[in-house]
Amino acid sequence: MKVLAIDTSNHPMSVALVEDDQLLATTTLNMVCNHSIYLMPTIDRLCQLVKWSPTDLDRVVVAQGPGSYTGIRIAATTAKVLADTLNIDLVGVSSLEVVARNVLPMTTAIIVPFFDTRRGNVFAGAYQWKDGQLTSQIADQHLAMSDLLTQLAKIDQQVIMVGHVTKKLADQFEKLPQNVSLAPRAYGIPSTYQLALVGVDQPAVKEIDPFVPHYLRITEAEANWQKLHPGVTRKNYVREV
Amino acid sequence: MAERTLILAFETSCDETSVAVVENGTKILSNVVATQIDSHQRFGGVVPEVASRHHIEWITRCVDQSLEEAGVGYGDIAAVAVTYGPGLVGSLLVGVTAAKVVAWAHHLPLIPVNHMAGHLYAARYVGEFMYPQMALLVSGGHTELVYMPKEHEYEIIGETRDDAAGEAYDKIGRVLGVNYPAGKTIDEWAAQGHDTFHFPRAMEKEANYDFSFSGLKSAFINTVHNADQRGEQLNKYDLAASFQQSVVDVLAEKTMRALDRYPVKQLILAGGVAANHGLRTRLDHDMAKYHPEVGMLQAPLKLCGDNAAMIGAAGYVDYQHGDHAGMDLNAVPGLMFKRMEVK
């Protein structure tokens, strides 16, 4: 199975071409965050290197979020349109899970990947390796970093946090609870090889059209509107004309 | 059978997700438009993040349906055209990303299209273009006079210095309790009222081709608020008629003067506000009176709003001129035609 894996959820952009369980080519950029400019040229170059034509692809696996709204939209649009136009499989994987997988399966600790979302908040989830499978322990969510640390302090197990500690979050990492430690910096960079491997094992989405990023937050405008209009159940606000 | 060149066109610059198949730049084989108006009406205007989210929900459905309605497959397509600006960056990115993927997957050339050129080319479905040409482009985001010495050359000779005409309609609409987009209702009310308030005509007498609508908007809002404070109820039809008369006067007069200064063979009227009946009627009248030698093409009503068919028509011409983008094409939210120094 020829797999393309894409992750542009945050600052790093990563692309991998994987055949069955073999990595053929991968590129990760961690510079100026302009995934719109670099993503397609990177996919194109890697395909040329391994001599794949677009139609050779069997499956596209994408880090579906959470993350930067623009970032996850670029990856999800690329993945869903590619799957649709080539009529190939599409798989979405949590962007937090991708980073959690950087922490070795030998550990029994709770693995907590996190992404800074500014203003002291993070996207975070909790995962744990069980019998070689990474399982979700606490669902991915958006919360205050201080609340996350309070929750983690109550867990009666070792916790390994993994992610990029931005300047804004640095203070809170200086006084981590006793059971919590931070994985080295390199573990915070997503590996699309790992992403592809997860994607190969998962069933493809049944319908491509409804595939959207996992934002984990409704927009501020919609949140305010819902407060003013409780009980409105209309779901679809887009219509063809 | 004559050779046909099919363009698959994408338009997602604001709150419409649209994909079209256009033959030789002049024939619409399909033009699928999914509008988000009902969504943004909740907020009284377009919310960019909400718009971006809707685009990604609809993009593949629009592509598939567009090909299906046209009765063609990717093998029949010659090139992919896409709006890359101006517009909302998050919205543009969905279309640009989708177009790049389709072009890459099927080894097709990618044509970057300026959204304003697209609006202009909506009029191409009415008749052939003749040059030199002048265009009055009026929409919710733009108000500009564009001079085209020949095909594929665009020069702005005048534009709005503040609000776009359509934006002014939405803002005064809000004061009258008309939800976004207010243009159609205000146009209908205006037809039932009279210009009794004589709002200012900004920059009407100035020796340039620029527009300004924020003074008119403020005068309108002040008039309504002052009446409210006196407990007086003003006639909404007369208010609408007075507002529209001011907008139409300025647009028509500046356009006539531009035509005095730049002799052209044809005037194009396009953009969302080109659907305004007051404006269409006024230009018909003024052109017959002042510039009977100049032909006029008004964009068809159903192609005045954002749609991909217009992008396909403009993209076809860009394609003939050899415009190609690489896979590094990015959205350019502030994309503009170059501005010409007006003497």
Automatic annotation (TrEMBL), chain A:
Pfam families: TsaD (PF00814). GO terms for cellular component: cytosol. Gene3D superfamilies: 3.30.420.40. GO terms for biological process: tRNA threonylcarbamoyladenosine modification. Residues 34-225 form the Gcp-like domain. This is Gcp-like domain-containing protein. It comes from Limosilactobacillus pontis DSM 8475.
